UniProtKB/TrEMBL annotation:
One example of a Gene Ontology biological process annotation: cell division
Keywords: Cell cycle, Cell division
SUPFAM superfamilies: Cell division protein ZapA-like
Keyword Cell cycle: yes
Protein name: Cell division protein ZapA
Originating organism: Aerophototrophica crusticola
Top-level division of the source organism's lineage: Bacteria
Amino acid sequence: MARVEVVVNGRGYMVACEDGQEGRIRELAGVVDETLREIAGDRPSGSEPQLLLVTSLVLADRLQELQAEVQALRGARLGLAPAAPIQVPARGAAEDEAVVSAVDTLAKRIEDIAARLDRA
């Protein structure tokens, strides 16, 4: 098992990986760092854990969009009709506030974990 140091948002992290995968891990970390910087821009942002969470959500969204595109292309190649889009029910303000509260709670938990890791 190899270990490689990557830098995201100016901070170094040691990551374990399979031997020979060091370059790929650095490349992936570069994508994360680039996306994080796009999100943060020049404006002051929240905490680093919250910024990393939002970056993860953006990357997960991009991944799902690409997976749907690949599935549609495969379906087209096989002559299959595209699946009907999933309808997401409208949410009210109370539900939106619950989502915001949950994200804030997760961000706080991530910050606490990061602080414990820094002390370790």
